[in-house]
Amino acid sequence: MAPQYQIRADYDARTIVVYQAYPPVIADAALRAGRFVTPFSFHRMTWIKPSFSWLMHRSNWARKAGQERILAVRMTRQGWEEALSRAVLTTADPKAVAQAAVHVQWDPERSPRGAALNHYSIQVGLGRQVIRTFTDDWIVSLTGLTGLTAQVRKAAALTQTGHAGRAQRLFPQERAYPLPPRLHGVVPGGG
Known about the structure:
The protein is 34% helix and 28% strand. By secondary structure, the chain is an alpha+beta fold. The longest helix is centred in the C-terminal third of the chain and has 16 residues, at 145-160.
């Protein structure tokens, strides 16, 4: 049984993968450039999620309007941990949340069929103060286009036809992220 609060992600020694869903116009421009460019907004918070299952639930398997394209954003672990070190829980004092460069919230993790599980998944909101650092310094690569979105749609079809186990095999392998001790207090429950 998974701990109630634990960061689970696809990561290696240097990078971590986070997911985002966008309309085609934003995703296509980003993939062509190899980084986020206009029409991506550098003036509003952008949310990154290391849980593939949670983003599938949130985007209705890439079918929700404005979230038809799934991007896997490989970013540096140094950047991920820097973001977490600047984070404030969205349930904290409203003044602290309003002033924070980075927001963190924990939402119920989801099964392939969308049912809420008894453990939580982290979502990290990057505010205007750190978006340029995220896009220009922390991102290593973007993956999407037809491959990832096609994989998402295949997994959705398998799930809907009663083959959730086969769908699960299409998901990225996520495991507990080794949060450095200096961040255990910054991300309550995340250690």
